[in-house]
TrEMBL record:
GO MF annotations, alphabetized: transferase activity
Organism phylogeny: Bacteria, Pseudomonadati, Verrucomicrobiota, Opitutia, Puniceicoccales
UniProt key word Transferase: yes
Protein name listed in UniProt: Motility associated factor glycosyltransferase family protein
Superkingdom of source: Bacteria
Keyword field: Transferase
Domain 6-hydroxymethylpterin diphosphokinase MptE-like: 183-352
Length: 598
């Protein structure tokens, strides 16, 4: 060492060992350099530093020859997963032809991807138990990472974001399953007898549709909507109908899909007239009650609703895409109705410069929930201005609309029949790809060609069809009561054995036989089993399985583990089936009350 190095070491004594190692004998340094050239030894040195917590979702850069992916799998807990991205599609294709790729793809913990980091790239995330991953871990394999640093950096960021979104979506699906099914059961006596949207297939052939959102620009859209009355099918959302009616616009339809009580707030004090509700079975029941028999409901995607629809003889069910915002449902409704174009007003997908989220006549403003902090917004390209502020939730909706526009815009499917001509009329809103902005004068030029008298004839036919449609309750009641009896039997058996284990009145052998009996009872009717699995039981079994996984990591006696597992299973089934039964009782009471009022 020279004098400068000696002075440095004296000042930083903690670094002495590092510097001494760096100045080993030339022979040792040469040997280290030789080892560094050996890919196998280099990989071993890299892998020796890998440490992952339980429940890790790992993002890895580059496929290479697959050896570093295998090293990660060896270091990773069995409860984790690894998603490996490759920047070069040609390299990825070559890799897929190897035996290593075949071996990795057979591993349920592995996902591979290449190309643009878009929705399609991350689709495979949905096939993993994303709720179980508490940690998102980026892992840099430098030889490949350095070849496309910006791509892999974006992949790590996007992976963490997509995993979080996916976890929230699945978490909502599981945690809200009881609420959704409970609402569906309470709505069943009315909605099982109401028409599906497919009953109105082509009802407004060639007519434009206007979907009115509750964004700030709805205030300046009311003159246009009054002009457009009976020149187009006007659809409101549950949070915009009040502003329309108070502004002199009579929407023909209103879309409501949220299962929570706040959905009903938008209808308070609103004169509904002959506006028709379009909704899924899981919508908040008070909303359905407001509309009486003036309701069209979709059932597809809902096990209970689809079963009773089919039992009532309805075989063709409408597919209506739900993506967290009710306005997104308008795409499918417009296609089913045969509309030629879909125009969005009040669909800003952005906030005003003062932080306002909604129009001035909104229940959100009544409740003081109408302002956000613009400083926390991200800025995106606007329809008429360079940049507009977009709050995080609205940004998710913006990306949803861009995805929907790509799928539904007529310009995107020139070789296919169907599709919609899409327009956005929100002056200060965010720009949506494949949904060009038009001002109201331009919009009027496109709508002015449609005859109001012709529209009114179509509208009257829809009203007549709806008034004559209602299916008799007798066609549904027997299956309704049969399902209720099925749930009572399961709940009773599960509760009886849960209590016996809790009080120490049952041994392991008896409990095992009881579980087998319970499973046979559940599987005796596959349709009812699917209905039960899609309700509160889904949440109860998730908690049960998660608890079992955590307990399995602790060192406990096998007999003690089995005893707890059996007891927890019986409680999960008892609680899940009980919650569904309670919804049935509420549904029957609601039906009796409705009939009494009539």
């Amino acid at each position: 060492m020279n004098r400068l190095e000696e002075l440095f070491v004296e000042k930083h004594s903690s670094l002495r060992a590092i510097l001494e190692e760096a100045f080993h004998e030339d022979v040792e340094l040469a040997a280290w350099r030789e080892q560094a050239r050996d890919p196998k030894l280099l990989l071993e040195r890299w892998a020796s530093g890998l440490r992952f917590p339980e429940d890790s979702a790992i993002a890895l850069s580059g496929v290479g020859d697959g050896s570093h992916i295998k090293a990660v799998l060896e270091a990773m807990p069995e409860s984790g997963m690894v998603f490996c991205a490759e920047a070069d599609p040609e390299r990825f294709k070559a890799f897929l032809r190897t035996s290593v790729a075949e071996e990795l793809l057979a591993d349920p913990r592995v996902a591979l991807g290449t190309g643009p980091l878009d929705e399609r790239f991350f689709e495979s995330l949905r096939s993993f138990p994303v709720m179980d991953f508490e940690h998102a871990e980026p892992v840099v394999f430098a030889p490949l990472f350095n070849e496309a640093e910006s791509y892999y950096s974006e992949f790590f960021t996007e992976f963490a974001r997509r995993l979080d979104v996916c976890r929230k979506l699945v978490g909502t699906l599981i945690s809200k399953s009881g609420l959704w099914q409970g609402n569906s059961i309470r709505n069943l006596p009315t909605l099982a007898r109401s028409p599906d949207p497919m009953e109105f297939f082509g009802a407004f052939d060639g007519v434009p549709m206007i979907m009115a959102g509750a964004g700030p620009s709805l205030d300046e859209s009311l003159d246009f909507l009054r002009w457009a009355q009976d020149r187009a099918v006007i659809v409101a959302g549950n949070s915009s109908i009040r502003a329309l009616v108070n502004g002199g616009v009579r929407p023909h339809f209103v879309l409501a899909a949220d299962p929570n009580r706040t959905t009903d707030s938008g209808f308070e004090g609103v004169e509904l007239g002959d506006t028709i509700l379009i909704c899924p079975f899981m919508v908040y029941p008070a909303v359905v009650e407001r509309f009486g028999e003036n309701v069209i409901a979709w059932a597809k995607g809902n096990e209970l609703a689809s079963y009773f629809r089919n039992a009532a003889g309805v075989q063709q069910l409408a597919h209506v895409t739900e993506h967290g915002t009710v306005s997104a449902c308008a795409f499918d409704i417009a296609l089913i109705f045969g509309c030629s174009s879909l125009h969005f007003v009040g669909q800003d997908l952005a906030v005003r410069s003062d932080g306002r989220l909604h129009n001035s006549d909104s229940f959100y403003r009544d409740e003081g929930k109408d302002v956000t902090n613009v400083e926390k917004c991200r800025w995106v390209e606007g329809n008429t201005v360079d940049k507009v502020p977009v709050e995080e939730k609205l940004f998710v909706y913006l990306k949803t609309f861009e995805m929907m526009a790509r799928a539904y815009a007529k310009e995107m499917q020139p070789l296919k029949r169907g599709g919609l001509v899409l327009y956005n009329h929100s002056r200060l809103g965010a720009k949506v790809e494949h949904m060009p902005y038009l001002d109201f004068d331009q919009a009027k030029q496109r709508l002015d060609r449609f005859s109001s008298s012709s529209f009114r004839q179509k509208w009257k036919r829809v009203q007549r069809t709806l008034s004559r449609y209602m299916i008799g309750w007798g066609k549904i009641e027997s299956l309704y009561l049969e399902l209720q009896g099925y749930l009572e039997s399961i709940c009773s058996l599960a509760l009886r054995h849960a209590m016996a284990l809790e009080l120490g009145e049952s041994d392991q052998e008896t409990a095992r036989a009881a579980k087998s009996e319970l499973l046979d009872l559940i599987k005796a009717n596959p349709n009812f089993e699917a209905i039960m699995d899609s309700g509160q039981l889904q949440m109860e079994l998730y908690v049960y399985n998660r608890t079992r996984l955590l307990k399995s990591r602790k060192k406990e006696g096998a007999q003690s583990v089995e005893h707890e597992a059996l007891k927890d299973y019986f409680w999960a089934v008892a609680e899940g089936s009980y919650q569904t039964l309670a919804a049935f009782e509420g549904s029957l009471l609601a039906k009796a009350k409705t009939e009494e009022l009539r």
